[in-house]
Specification:
Length: 126
């Protein structure tokens, strides 16, 4: 009987440690407004250069709804200003919040000519 209680206690301690670890990671996440006060607009490329991004950080894309969009693309889509892959996630709210994942996170505006005018960013996330 005592052996069973011991296993339950160990399981409870492990569960508590996992919850605390998860809470710490969430608490450490930083929210960034893309383009700062200018928001998601032309010539925003380079805004990310002086920042250190981590998995779990959140990017906020502010723009007039209907004037732009945000498309999460792969490297090919970023380099070619195209919505690649074809099932790329498209955001259109004007206040889009996107959680970063480890690796490269690429975003463009897919409205005609916008990406070519600098509405694209590539975020390297550790």
């Amino acid at each position: 009987m005592a052996e069973g209680r011991g296993r339950v206690m160990v399981a409870m301690v492990v569960l508590c440690l996992l919850v605390v670890t998860f809470q710490c990671e969430v608490a450490l996440a930083t929210t960034y407004v893309v383009g700062n006060d200018n928001g998601w607009t032309f010539n925003v490329a380079g805004w990310e250069n002086d920042k250190n991004f981590n998995a779990g950080d959140v990017l906020v894309f502010n723009y007039p709804q209907g004037a732009h969009n945000v498309v999460a693309v792969n490297k090919e889509g970023y380099d070619g200003c195209s919505t690649t892959p074809s099932d790329a996630k498209v955001y259109t709210s004007g206040n889009d919040q996107i959680t970063l994942v480890k690796g490269f996170n690429n975003f463009i505006c897919s409205y005609s000519g916008h990406c070519d005018s600098g509405m694209k960013i590539q975020i390297s996330v550790s």
